[in-house]
Amino acid sequence: MIHANLSLTDAVTRIDGPLLFAHRRVDVGLNEAVEVIGADGLPRLGRIAALDDDFMTIEILESTTGLGLGDTRIRFLGEPISFALGPGILGRVFDGVGRVLDGGPPIPAHTRMTVDGAILNPIRRKKPEDFIETGISTIDVLNSLVRGQKLPIFSGGGLPHNRLAIEIALHARLRNSEGESAETVPFAIVFAGIGVPFETAEFFRRTLEESGALGRTALFLNLASDSSTQRLLAPRFALTAAEYLAFVEGRHVLVIITDFTNYCEALREVSASHGEIPGRKGYPGYMYSDLATLYERAGSLLGKPGTLTQLPILTMPSDDINHPIPDLTGYITEGQITLNRTLDREGIYPPVGVLPSLSRLMKDGIGRGFTHPDHPALANQLYAAYAHAIQVRLLANVVGSDGLMPEDRVLLTFGQQFEHRFIHQERARTLDESMAVGWELLRLLPLSELSRLDDAQMAAHIQVGAESV
Asked: Are 237 and 287 found together in one domain?
């Protein structure tokens, strides 16, 4: 329902970047959708971001070029911003506010869903479980992703997180409760680039198209040249599409969003435009709750067949994990995958730092009935052995490798081999291939180092090789 067509000839007080300030002349609500129409007659989508008894602030989600104080009209739509969704959104490319970019026909609207969504009711949540294979050994074996989980990737400027994101989108697949490939289960990817340069956006689009993965993907591209207010809505449109696929069409959906740091920078910019009191490092004090409204849209619901899993990516300013963006993200999500600059400099890809990475829900999606009965033991042993190898490496930096005990030199070799053969990979691996590499590396170690394996596991995977050490 349209409240009014209001000419703001004598009501607009100021236009500041993407914000329009005006006297309040009608009864409207916070976050209500509006159309701002200038002298050129073109409607620009916006929403009411703040209001009081006398004034209102409107965030305009498109260019404000051509808008003037005396020739601007606002049309109030009487409802929050919504996204028209229906079958056929997979294989399509959208901008940050859900408009089709690929030149194809509009999406047939079977339903409209508000983009702000609703936090999943804890009472209606199901326990996240079942394994999602990403093709990345350090994730699949050591920090497994589980359906319904939110597992962020902490990166840094210049690290290959965009390449990692697109490769996960290309190779991610489900496995059923017996650990086999579950190709018949409906599975979809929602991929969103937030504040990305044009070249990066084209890389995402071209790679998905050429690989054929676009057919199972809904791609959202918010460019660095788009307004900061549009950047705040881009992840919301992407997550709304994911909720439709998961809870209406019954699919298992993996949402990959890069880069949440651009989102938080836009949040800081818009907050400053509103004149709000800044918090840590200039970010608004409500950034924690704002991020939570996005991250907590992951999960699975009782009585619904689909699941929504999030893999958000953020770059840590100055590689500082205590910066407000990764710090607050870590409080909300269930672990983190951390990229390591030292590994990247050594040419190791993907440069996943194993020791600071963690998946808190890993135990609920691996092992007997999900992947392989020996998967948990392998993960624990690899982590413990690599941690010991790093300690030995620090000692070798002081005394030199010649000053080490023979068993320590074996650990030093293991650490190097682990980084160059397990962490580094030229192509995507299946879980079985990743586990095979892990078992092969453990055969380099003496039996005294394999304290996380039981006798049956030793006999099945290690014994022959270990006796020769």
From this structure: yes
